[in-house]
Structure formats: structure tokens, C-alpha cells
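Whiteboard transcription, Tuesday session. T.W. wrote the C-alpha cells on the left side:
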């Protein structure tokens, strides 16, 4: 998946796909419920392609690389639910990213 079209909007939960761009802002579609809405140019938007995570080693890794590692570990199966026990999530992410 092309992460350059997936965004996070400050103050709104979830992720959104950019559908179109106009002079006043963007038209986005929620990945969760497929509802479309306008996002004004003054909104703070972060493109997933530009987000990275810091590792304990001091390096950083792009979110896209983390998602690829999760996909490879799970062989395409769903990852553990975000509401799983903390210990289960910590074990899962330690296996995916030892750092």
C-alpha cells in the first residue's frame, strides 16, 4: 500500500485516505467507515510515509518498514488487537522489533 496517500489529522481519531486536493484543502475518506469529508488547509495533517519511530539504539525506522515487518511475521494474518493485554502486545512487538 502507498503510505503517501494515508494521513493522520490532528484532533481526529483514525486514519484517512486522500481522495482529492482542492485550493481550500483536501477531500479525505476514513479508512474505518469509508465516510468522506473535507479537511481545510489550516488543519494539521501528517502523512504516514513521513512518520518514523525511534528505537532504543538511537536510530529510527519508518512506519512503513514496521508495517512490513508485522505483515511478514503474521504472513498476512491480522495482528493482535490493540485492546489485548499489555504483556501480549509487548511480546508481539519485541518479536517484530527487538530494538
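and on the right, the sequence the group agreed on:
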Amino acid at each position: 500500500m502507498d503510505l503517501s496517500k494515508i494521513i493522520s489529522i490532528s484532533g481526529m481519531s483514525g486514519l484517512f485516505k486522500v481522495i482529492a486536493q482542492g485550493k481550500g484543502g483536501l477531500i479525505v475518506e476514513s479508512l474505518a467507515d469509508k465516510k468522506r469529508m473535507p479537511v481545510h488547509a489550516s488543519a494539521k495533517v501528517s502523512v504516514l510515509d513521513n512518520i518514523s519511530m525511534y528505537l532504543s539504539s538511537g536510530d529510527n525506522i519508518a512506519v512503513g518498514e514496521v508495517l512490513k515487518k508485522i505483515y511478514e511475521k503474521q504472513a498476512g494474518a491480522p495482528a493482535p488487537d490493540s485492546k489485548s493485554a499489555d504483556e501480549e502486545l509487548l511480546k508481539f512487538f519485541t518479536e517484530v522489533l527487538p530494538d
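Someone added at the bottom: The mean pLDDT is 90.
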